[in-house]
Amino acid sequence: MAQKTIDLCNKAAELNYSDKLRHGNIIELPSEGRLVVSGDLHGHRKNFKRIAAFADLANNPDTYLVFQEILHGGKDEPHSGCLSFLLFFDILKLKLKFPEQVQLVMGNHDTAIVTDSDVMKGGKEMNEAFKYSLRQCFEDDFEEVNETIKEYLLSQPLAVKTTSGIWVSHSIPGDQHISDFDHEVFDRELFPDDLLRGEPAYLLTWGRRHSQEKQDEFAKALGIKIFILGHQKQDTGFSKIGENLIILTSEHNHGCLMALDIARCYTIDELIECIVPLASVEV
Ligand SMILES: [Mn+2]
Fold this sequence. Notes:
Blueprint: H1 2-18, E1 22-23, E2 26-28, E3 34-40, H2 45-55, E4 63-68, H3 84-97, E5 102-105, H4 108-114, E6 120-121, E7 124-125, H5 126-138, H6 142-155, E8 159-161, E9 166-169, H7 175-178, H8 200-206, H9 212-222, E10 226-229, E11 238-241, E12 245-248, E13 256-261, H10 268-272, E14 275-277
Parallel strand pairs: 2-8, 3-4, 4-5, 9-10, 10-12
Antiparallel strand pairs: 1-2, 3-13, 6-7, 8-9, 11-12, 13-14
């Protein structure tokens, strides 16, 4: 099992680096097709099945499906462990099958795994829980599998954007880090140090509670119109924040996805209409 998992992560990382849609660390989608965006999954297998069924990639070759924050969390956590890597491996298998159609953007929990840092979720420190279960599963091969997962996570793009001005990333920097954010991180090779606290990939994935003024400033700097993010928990599945930001979540029974026509220009209220409750998707 270990070698298969190592090969899976390595192949998926190679696909990330060689993706022809990738420019620097941003996936620039073609000007036509359908974009399906998932919020944080955190090991929620049932919602993954609903998202995959909704996207139906095999029958919709022009559909692009974005995942984020798959790792940490989930129901099956014996002995204080965390088995979310099992879902993560299944999503990587889907990526191998549909390399350009399936995109995983970097989340803050990914940065915690790469930098081996503490990260709390629901009162539980997830990095140790994750390593505990990974060690239980892979025993003597734990170190090698863990390193390969980290290499994969580092290979991920930071964002996906459309020509119509929609930007999908896990979060955006907090208000105090917007003006001096190092935009070069989108264009150059990423290193593990970029994911450390205070560094650009960290700031991009950990930011919370944004003001309209700073959302506007960051949108202008990126040349985009509307942000679609995950990261911040939403009990109802989504929130509209100000005039140009939507947060989605897919990690509980009220989770949602968003499905939109890449060629069309949307207002934020029209995008809200594109949100689909996952409970409504038949699997
Ligand atoms: Mn997050």
